[in-house]
Design goal:
Radius of gyration: 28 Å
Number of strands: 17
Low-confidence stretches: 93-97, 164-169
Strand order of the largest sheet: 1-4-7-3-9-11-13-17-15
Mean pLDDT: 84
Number of domains: 2
């Protein structure tokens, strides 16, 4: 008789459970304890939630090294979570600028203004008619003047919300007024929302507008010289209002952009006072009225 061949009984594969999720729970518990004890302020939460990609990193480490060395996985995950936690707590315990509902910047001897507006999500209206150099009001206590400089008769101002998170201010609404009796160079960095830049009563020197997915309205008055306006946008809707008799040209570059209205007036080439508008963006619509 032939001897029977005996095969070893296959052993079931024992998969170690992921250690990343329990460690994240422990880290969150530590943050809650520190917050309840008053060691960190409320600004820790948006910073903490912004670290969600950390979960993907921990999953990747588990998949790569879990079957090789549980100790290595544990050490790497503890190190990564500790560094992230220390960075978040350190940033939240730092002195955070306190915002206000409204603020003004005095003119002093300024005769021209360069204004930079860094803004996240929400609604924003900008117009002329200010008696001060800049006047800002908000529905939240989030207005912060980051930088004011006077160089002779030239002034520059930078304003931004206190949180500096793109979507942290989805319910905010700002109203910004600038003078009508001095030249203004405007630069805005906007997020998603509704933005109305009413420049009909502003002596606009130049404008640079960057915005995300939004409804943007640009109202133009009488130009003084050749006024360049550049607009870069994501998927957005842009409506440009131009007074009758004003010379202008609108050029578009980028992805799928639909244009409605007259893109260049007949008087543009020979005009010394005119608007030169360049729009670049993704899937957007531009309406000129």
């Amino acid at each position: 008789m032939n001897a029977q061949t005996t095969f070893p009984t296959p052993q079931p594969i024992v998969r170690r459970p992921s250690m990343g999720f329990p460690l994240l729970l422990i880290a969150l518990g530590v943050v809650f304890l520190l917050a309840n004890a008053g060691y960190v302020n409320s600004s820790v939460w948006p910073r903490l939630f912004s670290l969600w990609p950390l979960a993907l990193v921990l999953v990747g480490i588990d998949l790569l090294f879990r079957e090789r060395s549980a100790a290595l996985v544990l050490a790497l995950e503890i190190l990564i979570i500790t560094v992230a936690l220390v960075a978040v707590i350190a940033s939240s315990t730092a002195v955070v600028p306190i915002g206000t509902n409204s603020t003004t910047v005095g003119r002093e001897d300024a005769r021209s203004l360069s204004l930079v507006v860094n803004y996240g999500a929400g609604k924003l209206a900008l117009h002329g008619g200010a008696t001060d150099l800049v006047q800002v009001s908000s529905t939240r206590q989030d207005v912060r003047v980051r930088d004011v400089r006077h160089d002779g008769t030239a002034a520059s101002v930078t304003i931004a919300p206190t949180d500096d998170f793109l979507f942290a201010g989805a319910d905010r609404s700002w109203d910004i007024a600038v003078p009508s009796d001095m030249s203004v160079a405007l630069s805005t960095s906007l997020g998603a929302g509704e933005f109305d830049l009413d420049l009909r009563n502003v002596q606009l020197r130049s404008a640079s507008v960057s915005n995300g997915a939004s409804d943007l309205v640009l109202r133009l008055g009488k130009p003084h010289g050749d006024v360049p306006i550049t607009i870069s946008s994501g998927a957005s809707s842009l409506t440009i209002y131009v007074d009758d008799g004003v010379a202008y040209r609108v050029r578009t570059t980028g992805g799928l952009i639909s244009v409605t209205g007259t893109e260049q007036t007949a008087s543009y080439d020979g005009a010394s006072d005119r608007f030169t508008i360049v729009f670049s963006g993704g899937m957007s619509s531009v309406t000129i009225r």
